[in-house]
From TrEMBL:
Keywords: Acyltransferase, Membrane, Transferase, Transmembrane, Transmembrane helix. This is Acyltransferase. Residues 15-321 form the Acyltransferase domain. It holds the Pfam family Acyl_transf_3. The lineage of its organism: Bacteria, Bacillati, Actinomycetota, Actinomycetes, Propionibacteriales.
Length: 351
């Protein structure tokens, strides 16, 4: 791969930072409504936050597929681990500290500390097994859950692992057809699941709903180079996506996942993105920290209008996300990328 191609791909990946930040902020706004005791905005039966998560998955599928075929399997897995896990673990600790701070005056400190330790330990491997800490948060509109955003991360990691495993047996020149089959298989699994299992487990239902978005993005990686995505193509793809979703709201959006990927990727090429956002990707931090800070403000019982509450959530979350990126995420990613066995010196998407 020549240096010009490397620079171009890295630039395109960084241009998606703004799109990801907007999506993370949409999740924040959607969740801030319910933590404030208001109705969550809904479009076609799904919350704005759920739609933003779907968009996250298609963009992630597109970018991570390129990363997998550029890197050996071990290096690929190290990069995926470095991107998700360290910041996630710190978020669990910060959430425990928030719970202790918010309820130290009403519950025994020892009970709160042991609850925070159990919270971090039980959720350490991404699958969310404990939502509350020593019975908190309580006395608010959305009790018993400190971070309702984290459940998607286990499914994203599962998609990374499936992609990594399939790529082991699939050379790049055959990847287009193989991952087209994987994506279609994931859509068929979603359609068939309720007919095969009367009451499927929650984790399986969630994965079946999200995987087609991810692998729809993977398909686009092997079909349409970023350089060929234009504003006009993005508009056509968006129209097609809406049309298929209107035809069947149960699984039409998953069937149209590649169109959603093209719409978002094309949009990223025409949106004016500030240089600071292209250099720094705080979207992951915004996503994982928004809910606990929303809950902490709700516990504080601020008698302020919702726009003021939202502004405070944005301020606190933005500060935490920026600190997470500058002090932890960026450093861990740099360390991971400095490890041997890399095939090319190319900026990796900060996904």
């Amino acid at each position: 791969m020549d240096q010009a191609t490397t620079a171009t791909r890295g630039r395109h990946a960084n241009s998606l930072n703004l799109v990801r930040l907007v999506l993370a902020t949409a999740v924040l706004v959607s969740h801030a409504r319910i933590t404030a005791g208001l109705e969550e905005p809904v479009i076609r039966g799904d919350s704005v936050g759920a739609w933003a998560v779907a968009c996250f998955f298609v963009v992630s599928g597109y970018l991570i597929a390129e990363s997998r075929y550029r890197l050996p399997l071990g290096t690929y897995l190290l990069h995926r681990f470095a991107r998700i896990m360290p910041a996630y673990w710190v978020c669990l600790v910060v959430t425990g500290l928030l719970a202790i701070t918010c309820f130290a005056g009403t519950l025994p400190l020892g009970e709160l500390v042991s609850g925070a330790l159990r919270y971090a330990g039980s959720n350490a491997f991404l699958v969310q097994q404990q939502g509350g800490i020593a019975g908190t948060p309580s006395g608010i509109a959305y009790p018993g859950e400190w971070n309702a955003s984290l459940w998607t991360l286990a499914h994203e990691m599962a998609c990374y692992l499936v992609l990594g495993a399939v790529a082991v047996l699939t050379p790049r020149h055959r990847a287009r057809l193989v991952f087209l089959a994987v994506w279609l298989g994931s859509v068929l699994a979603l359609v068939a699941l309720p007919h095969v299992i009367a009451e499927p487990p929650l984790l399986l239902s969630q994965f079946a709903r999200l995987a087609p978005y991810f692998f729809g993005g993977v398909v686009v990686q092997f079909v349409l180079p970023m350089e060929r995505m234009t504003a006009a193509l993005s508009a056509v793809a968006a129209t097609g996506f809406v049309g298929l979703e209107l035809l069947d709201p149960r699984w039409g959006s998953q069937l149209a996942a590649p169109l959603l990927a093209v719409a978002l990727l094309g949009l990223s090429r025409v949106l004016p993105s500030p240089a600071v956002i292209r250099r720094h990707d705080i979207s992951y931090g915004v996503y994982i920290y928004a809910f606990p800070f929303s809950q902490a403000l709700a516990v504080a019982g601020l008698e302020e209008p919702w726009p003021v509450y939202l502004a405070l959530v944005l301020l606190l979350t933005g500060a935490a996300a920026t600190a997470s990126w500058l002090l932890l995420e960026r450093r861990v990613l740099r360390w991971a990328r400095s490890r041997p066995a890399r095939r090319a010196r190319m900026p990796e998407p900060s996904v």
